[in-house]
UniProtKB/TrEMBL annotation, chains A, B:
Keywords: Cobalamin biosynthesis, Methyltransferase, S-adenosyl-L-methionine, Transferase. Pfam families: TP_methylase (PF00590). InterPro entries: 4pyrrol_Mease, 4pyrrol_Methylase_sf, 4pyrrole_Mease_sub1, 4pyrrole_Mease_sub2, Cbl_synth_CobJ/CibH_dom, Precorrin_MeTrfase. It comes from the Bacteria. It comes from Halomonas organivorans. This is Precorrin-3B C17-methyltransferase.
């Protein structure tokens, strides 16, 4: 079984390794919009399922692999970053002992975080952290604690799943914590659907940011205290943002 | 000018976007071993330079781009993670005003961190941080502070540049801080030269880890308090390591 990262959206960011695995697969398993990124062809069955169905989906994939199918479990971006990698190993650990003999391989991909960072310059160019802002699977208090400690460590920060219809208030609370911990002038970046036709980029400050600037398809980044903005005549956002390599 | 990520080493992990830019470039600029990953061909000049020459190298690349050359600045992995991205923007900000009109694009790549994580399972499957352990450009006290705060936040951690001949003692100090903050049983992973013929993977605990397990080509990862090891009959390290998505 292969656990495959499809990259952030554009075909030119899918690794040749992933493409060749997808060309050989008999079954592709994943969240509906990701499964639909794999073109239909004879001999391929696409198994799309809903969000929040990750463990059931992982079990289904392991069952099919144990039956001898060539299964590709697909995620957007990289499978190891808030994606199907952890779900498959969770299902494997709790599941049938025979699954532990399966030949499994994880194929890395260009994560949304790296693609968003590249579009804007190099905002994660020095020490950084990456936090899932969804409180579906962890208490809000832990998210807030991590935000405060990340600010104290002066990490640049990347946030996945900042906001959804079922959790409209979480991101406003995160912004409030960040304003208090990092100040109003700190750069914040919103990178929506990077590398797709729906891409939208915005650079502003914590003081100017509003919760509506993010949705579920937005990768949010906050600079460290050293992060710099360079106004330019080029660049997709009219400026470049980078975090210097040096703190001396 | 393009700032290009070559991925961790294997050609099957270079994005088609990066490959097509390299095929069109007149000049490739970078650290010698990375420049050598681009095959020579008529019409291409390869400009290899030493480690720690990043700013001079970035200036040279910007100068050539301003002269109308099709320049590709190459980094291993992703250019935005402890690589040439930040160096180029630093040189751009401090350099000639005309450089701000240059058409620059950053092409993301599969970082060593994501490739190493994939080989071992999904150790960065939940909130994590990424720290450069080199104290060339920042004081050791800041590294130690970040390690302690990252442990308090219970992040999984990825470390670049753990050890070099010029800084043999730093990684031993990092291990001591981590043992104190995370305990002796916490999983630690050493992933050297991932995806190349020199790849070497090892999973152990902080209690058993020694500084010699890392060198400059090693990506080191430490689990969070929830990270799990699954013994299996397959997998490149005889076990899978993953950090669950849920903390409840």
């Amino acid at each position: 079984m292969k656990i495959v990262g499809l990259g952030p959206g554009n075909e030119v960011l899918i690794t040749p390794e992933a493409s060749s695995v997808l060309a050989e697969a008999t079954d592709v398993v994943g969240y509906v919009p990701y499964v639909e990124r794999v073109a239909p062809r004879p001999g391929l069955t696409r198994h799309g399922s809903d969000n929040r169905e990750e463990i059931r989906r992982a079990e289904q994939a392991l069952e099919m692999a144990a039956d001898g199918r060539r299964v590709a479990v697909v995620s957007s971006g990289d499978p190891g970053v808030f994606a199907m990698g952890a779900a498959v190993f969770e299902a494997l650990e709790a599941g049938q002992p025979a699954w532990r003999a399966l030949d499994i391989q994880v194929l890395p991909g260009v994560s949304a975080m790296l693609a968003a960072s590249a579009r804007l310059g190099a905002p994660l160019g020095h020490d950084f952290c990456c936090i899932n802002l969804s409180d579906n699977l962890k208490p809000w208090a832990l998210i807030e604690k991590r935000l405060r400690l990340a600010a104290e460590a002066d990490f640049a920060m990347a946030f996945y799943n900042p906001r959804s219809r079922s959790r409209p208030e979480g991101f406003a609370r995160a912004l409030a914590v960040l304003r208090e911990a990092c100040g109003l002038d700190r750069p914040i970046m919103f990178a929506r659907a990077v590398s797709t036709p729906e891409e939208r980029l915005r650079v502003t400050t914590l003081g100017e940011a509003t919760p509506e600037m993010a949705d579920m398809r937005t990768l949010v980044m906050v600079g460290s205290s050293l992060t710099r903005r360079i106004p330019v005549d080029s660049g997709v956002a009219g400026e470049w943002v980078y975090t210097p390599r040096s703190v001396v």
